[in-house]
């Protein structure tokens, strides 16, 4: 007996149920990292890059527990008495003097061009990477994926850096994205630039069409100097000067290193500089735990500029003291610290 054909509504219902069943049985392609799909969509929209190639890059990146461990114990959490000996050592000073002397012509040319004292360029690469010897062992992509997608306390900042890295033109990097190495925070090159700093302050000083902060000394030096200049470095201006506090000194608390008071105001509050300073010079004050008790430092605009590179006042003072020692030694004076 011939079968009775189903009605049209029935056939539609069966087809719909079949499609839903087939869809439910299909494997779901989960993103490799949380938030990857949204990130790829944004980068592809903003740059026109292929979502396939972007996903391939991110699929190859790995979350690194050692990076999460490292960011939880930064050196800047140490007091000044323990922090200073990490960076101000006879070897780092002597290596910096030799480095300055070897590259003096290039450093002084770039320093003059940007209005930045060359010893501070040397001190930055000295503190950051021991003059290019230690630029970091972590894959930059792993670092920024780990911190941008797996580290909620600072996810916004590091996700932005990851997005910027994926958006940078090839000629802004020292090599393919998945081969770049750097710090646990994703900083690259001798000056340890984050992707946004490469984008905003990187300089192709050697004119080869590429910003190479790993292999080109002109690019490295000029990029550091340009960073300082763009952040308000004052040519020939002071950085920091030690002060003494009298017994009635007014306690001062500062949130950052921006200049807030003229030197004469700090003097009126009981903080006397140990060297001659312009009484009207805008300044601030840092109180740090030294080996022999509290140290007081009157700081200026150029000190604040160094803290835009690394916001810790300990870092800025280490750069300042290393720069001073290098300049003294490079010019034949006693650089003993």
Quick summary of this structure?
The chain has 337 residues and is an alpha+beta fold. 50% of the residues lie in helices and 9% in strands.
What's the helix and strand layout?
Layout lengths: L7 H18 L10 H12 L3 H9 L5 H7 L8 H8 L2 H13 L1 H11 L3 H12 L8 E2 H11 L4 H13 L13 E2 L12 H7 L15 H14 L9 E6 L15 E2 H6 L2 E3 L8 E9 L2 E7 L1 H9 L3 H18 L7
Antiparallel strand pairs: 1-2, 3-5, 3-7, 4-6, 6-7
Helix pairs in contact: 2-3, 5-15, 6-8, 6-15, 7-8, 7-12, 8-15, 9-10, 11-12, 14-15
Verbal overview:
There is one protein chain. The protein has 337 residues and is of the alpha+beta class. The protein contains 15 helices and seven strands. β6 and β7 form a beta hairpin. The N and C termini lie far apart (106 Å). The relative contact order is 0.12. Residues 1-28 have low confidence and may be disordered.
What structural keywords apply?
Lytic_transglycosylase_MltB; disordered N terminus; 5-stranded antiparallel beta sheet; signal; alpha+beta; 337 residues; globular; two-stranded antiparallel sheet
Shape summary: globular
Count of separate DSSP helical elements: 15
* Mean pLDDT across residues: 91
Oligomer: single chain
Give the beta-strand count. 7
Poorly predicted spans: 1-28
Largest sheet: 5 strands, antiparallel
How large a portion of the residues is in β-strands, by DSSP E? 5-15%
Strands of the biggest beta sheet: in what spatial order? 4-6-7-3-5
Rg from Cα: 27 Å
Order of helices and strands: HHHHHHHHEHHEHHEEHEEEHH
């Amino acid at each position: 007996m011939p079968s009775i054909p189903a009605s049209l509504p029935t056939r539609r219902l069966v087809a719909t149920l079949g499609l839903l069943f087939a869809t439910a049985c299909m494997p779901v392609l989960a993103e490799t990292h949380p938030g990857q799909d949204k990130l790829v969509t944004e980068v592809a929209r903003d740059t026109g890059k292929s979502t396939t190639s972007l996903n391939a890059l991110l699929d190859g990146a790995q979350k690194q527990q050692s990076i999460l461990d490292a960011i939880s114990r930064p050196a800047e959490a140490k007091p000044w008495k323990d922090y200073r000996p990490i960076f101000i050592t006879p070897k780092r000073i002597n290596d910096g003097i030799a480095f300055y002397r070897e590259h003096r012509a290039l450093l002084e040319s770039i320093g003059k061009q940007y209005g930045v004292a060359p010893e501070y360029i040397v001190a930055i690469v000295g503190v950051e990477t021991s003059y290019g010897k230690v630029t970091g062992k972590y894959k930059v992509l792993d670092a920024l994926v780990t911190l941008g997608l797996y580290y909620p306390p600072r996810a916004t900042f590091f996700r932005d850096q990851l997005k910027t890295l994926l958006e940078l033109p090839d000629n802004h990097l020292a090599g393919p994205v998945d081969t770049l190495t750097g710090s646990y925070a994703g900083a690259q090159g001798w000056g340890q630039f984050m992707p946004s700093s490469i984008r905003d302050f990187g300089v192709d000083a050697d004119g080869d069409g590429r910003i190479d902060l790993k292999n080109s000394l002109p690019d490295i030096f000029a990029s550091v100097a340009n960073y300082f200049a763009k952040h308000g470095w004052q040519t020939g201006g002071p950085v920091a000067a030690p002060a003494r506090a009298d017994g009635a000194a007014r306690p001062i608390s500062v949130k950052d290193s921006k200049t807030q008071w003229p030197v004469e105001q700090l003097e009126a509050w009981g903080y006397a500089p140990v060297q001659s300073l312009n009484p009207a010079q805008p300044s601030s004050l840092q109180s740090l735990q030294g080996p022999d008790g509290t140290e007081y430092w009157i700081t200026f605009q150029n000190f604040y500029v160094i803290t835009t590179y690394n916001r810790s006042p300990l870092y800025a003072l280490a750069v300042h003291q290393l720069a001073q020692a290098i300049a003294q030694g490079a010019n034949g004076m006693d650089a003993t610290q």
